Amino acid sequence: MNHKQQSNDGKHDDDSALSDFLASLMDYTPSIPDELVEHCLAKSGFQCPDVRLIRLVAVASQKFVAEVASDSLQHCKARQAAGAKDKRDKQPKDKRLILTMDDLSKSLREVGHFESIDFVYGVNVKQQEYFADNPSTGMDPASRDE
């Protein structure tokens, strides 16, 4: 009986913590505007009048973007460090980091770990084919074969 009472107290603590968290969302202004989140959710078929839920999605989206940006920065630093090792004779004067699409796509493809659960972001990034990349891109389909 004491065990049952402890589990009810734990549930009550969880409920009060959740209520406190949801109440704190009303005072928080996320980086992603509520209107943008509402638009994206409505486009996917989800409508909710509760601002707290909209802000919860915004906070989760903000965390996702921050993690991807951080991972991309690590890939960028590793790439530029590998390039610096190859060119030891010439020390680059400009120490700015240049983030490329390759850094972003590598960070989106990599496997992450969260509390012993493996997950993949699941986003595949393909670069668009540009006229400069392929000479036959801007040509008529009939003249490409020639």
From TrEMBL:
Major subcellular location class: nucleus
Domain of life: Eukaryota
Transmembrane segments: none
Stated name of the protein: TBP-ASSOCIATED FACTOR 10, SALT TOLERANCE DURING GERMINATION 1, TBP-associated factor II 15
Subcellular location: Nucleus
The UniProt record lists the keyword Secreted: no
UniProt keyword annotations, A-Z: Nucleus, Transcription, Transcription regulation
Pfam families: TAF10
A molecular function GO annotation: promoter-specific chromatin binding
A single cellular component GO annotation: transcription factor TFIID complex
Family recorded in the similarity comment: Belongs to the TAF10 family.
BP-aspect Gene Ontology terms: transcription initiation at RNA polymerase II promoter
